[in-house]
């Protein structure tokens, strides 16, 4: 099973969601993201939020179309997306994909990034991606990882999440590296490209954020 979560970010950053549909996927709507799913003719399995970003007509449609709606007061300790993420982690999916979590307010975006680094998610060892129309973001743990060249996402950046990431080696890239250590705040591994059909990146310690982007 996989879980796709659609948050309430600006519609212009959200890709066509139907291409991410399959029989293995459960869709989760978060606040206005529930209405976004309904607009794209996708029925959410469950919904979370205070729904302060929808009008009365949209809220009535959500109540009609979604079987399980978890509505909260706006004054709460967790964001709507964090509540949805906690539920998703408890379902033990093979993968979580998050849409509608980028663009718009920077505080929301930074908070959403932090959700990828919570102990609960890291301990669950669930593959998680954050996707918008221009970017695909994920976390990588130590080891060797294969990466395929993509005409849509030609740029690849590696950003340290932990204080230090040790032994980074990049093979098959325009700017190769061999056994380099980088620390949080470094821009050494920003905006690289594959020069062959596939390549590898590896490291021995720490956590990397891997960002694939288009122009």
From TrEMBL:
Record EC number: 2.7.6.2
Keyword Transferase appears in the UniProt entry: yes
Record key words, sorted: Transferase
Name recorded for this polypeptide: Thiamine diphosphokinase
């Amino acid at each position: 099973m996989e879980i796709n979560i659609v948050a309430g970010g600006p519609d212009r950053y959200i890709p066509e969601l139907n291409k991410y549909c399959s029989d293995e996927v459960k869709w989760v709507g978060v606040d206005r993201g529930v209405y976004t799913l309904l607009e794209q003719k996708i029925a959410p399995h469950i919904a979370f939020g205070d729904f302060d970003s929808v009008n009365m007509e949209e809220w009535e449609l959500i109540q009609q179309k979604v079987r399980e709606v978890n509505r909260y007061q706006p004054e709460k300790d967790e964001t709507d997306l964090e509540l949805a993420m906690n539920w998703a982690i408890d379902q033990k999916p093979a993968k979580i994909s998050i849409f509608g979590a980028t663009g718009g307010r920077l505080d929301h975006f930074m908070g959403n990034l932090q959700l990828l680094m919570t102990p609960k998610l890291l301990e669950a060892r669930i593959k998680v991606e954050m996707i918008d129309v221009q970017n695909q973001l994920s976390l990588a743990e130590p080891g060797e990882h294969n990466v395929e060249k993509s005409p849509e996402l030609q740029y690849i950046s590696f950003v340290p999440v932990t204080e230090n990431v040790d032994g980074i080696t990049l093979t098959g890239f325009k700017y190769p590296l061999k056994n380099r250590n980088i620390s949080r705040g470094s821009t050494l591994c920003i905006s690289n490209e594959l020069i062959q059909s596939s390549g590898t990146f590896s490291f021995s310690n720490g956590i990397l954020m891997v960002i694939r982007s288009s122009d």
